TrEMBL record:
Binds 1 [4Fe-4S] cluster per subunit. This is 4-hydroxy-3-methylbut-2-enyl diphosphate reductase. The active site is at residue 140. Its EC number is 1.17.7.4. The gene is ispH. Isopentenyl diphosphate binds at residues 55, 88, 138, 237-239, 282. The keyword Iron-sulfur applies. [4Fe-4S] cluster binds at residues 26, 110, 209. It comes from Belnapia arida. InterPro entries: LytB/IspH. Belongs to the IspH family. It is an enzyme of class 1 (oxidoreductase).
Length: 327
């Protein structure tokens, strides 16, 4: 009779795990979460948040337990409650409506997204029509297009549309990009735009954020050594989806996304010698630890961290949260 049915098996198969670095939270995500937590601490629950603060259910549910209430639109926010705008940015109509209702609001838009907003406004003020490289319906794209009057920004989703989408012929052109795209995808689209419009104005510096670039570079550094890439992230997270694509393009035979450790099908790693693990910019490190714990159920892990860049950047909280005092 087995008195220890749950005792760990001996002689577990060895599995090499290449842990990509950097991975997980970026400075913009870290700042956005701190804004919600600090608002709850300072003003008391509930604090309303328009849209998911970042694209990760674990983070959202953690903040809900602390007293955050997530809503889709401002008409769900009571007049006397503080509201936070998500890290992805919002159309100008949203703070305008908040001001009209005299709502106290905090803007958690990532400063790198705000930089793209300012670029768009500068191009518009100089009479240029703007081509935005990005994914239709993504909150960041909705927010960026919403900085300017309707019809002044054309969305370009891929290289084919870069070659064929009708654009105004009576104005100079400029392009900007969503921050969370694949570096490789953007290169192809930009090349198509430059070929079609040799005089198009480009960003002074690539809009794709440092964190997206670094996480993709880290995946590329391990992809050809790994037989499977596990990306910790959410299905509505653009930068996490791009990591899956980057891994496969860079030579990894298979890449999968999981939201939590329990979601990982261990049979995928059966018979493999080496796998890679990374996390999107909105996924906390605790979820990476969950994946490793899940793998340890069936394997003896040998972990090697492969770091391609050190990230030291931080972003300040909004001025309203930097000093003590009531709103």
């Amino acid at each position: 009779m087995d008195l220890h049915p749950h005792a760990p098996e001996r002689n577990l198969p060895r599995l090499n795990v290449l842990l990509a670095g950097p991975r997980g939270f970026c400075a913009g995500v870290d700042r956005a979460i701190k804004i919600v937590e600090e608002a709850i601490r300072r003003y008391g629950a509930p604090v309303y948040v328009r849209h998911e603060i970042v694209h990760n259910r674990f983070v959202v549910e953690s903040l809900e337990r602390q007293g955050a209430i997530f809503v889709e639109e401002l008409d769900e926010v009571p007049d006397d409650a503080p509201v936070v705008f998500s890290a992805h940015g919002v159309p100008k109509s949203v703070p305008a409506e908040a001001s009209r209702r005299k709502l106290f609001y905090l803007d958690a838009t990532c400063p790198l997204v705000s930089k793209v907003h300012r670029e768009a406004e500068q191009h518009f003020s100089r009479g240029r029509h703007i081509l935005l490289i990005g994914h239709a319906g993504h909150p960041e794209v909705v927010g960026t297009m919403g900085q300017l009057p309707e019809g002044t920004v054309t969305l370009i989703e891929d290289a084919e549309r870069a070659r064929t989408t009708p654009v105004p012929v009576d104005r100079p052109l400029a392009f900007i990009t969503q921050t969370t795209l694949s570096v490789d995808d953007t290169t192809d689209i930009v090349a198509a735009l430059r070929e079609r419009f040799p005089d198009i104005h480009a960003p002074a510096k690539e809009d794709i954020c440092y964190a997206t670039t670094n996480r993709q570079a880290a995946v590329k550094a391990i992809a050809d050594r790994a037989e499977l890439m596990v990306v910790v992230g959410a299905p509505n997270s653009s930068n996490s989806l791009r990591l899956v694509e980057v891994a496969e393009r860079a030579g990894c035979p298979k890449a999968v996304m999981v939201q939590r450790g329990r979601d990982l099908d261990l049979s995928l790693a059966g018979g493999l010698r080496t796998i890679g693990v990374t996390a999107g910019a909105s996924a906390p490190e605790v979820l990476v630890e969950e994946v490793l714990a899940r793998l340890r159920e069936r394997f003896e892990l040998a972990i090697e961290e492969v770091v391609v860049a050190e990230e030291t950047i931080t972003f300040k909280l909004p001025s309203a949260l930097q000093t003590e005092g009531a709103r």
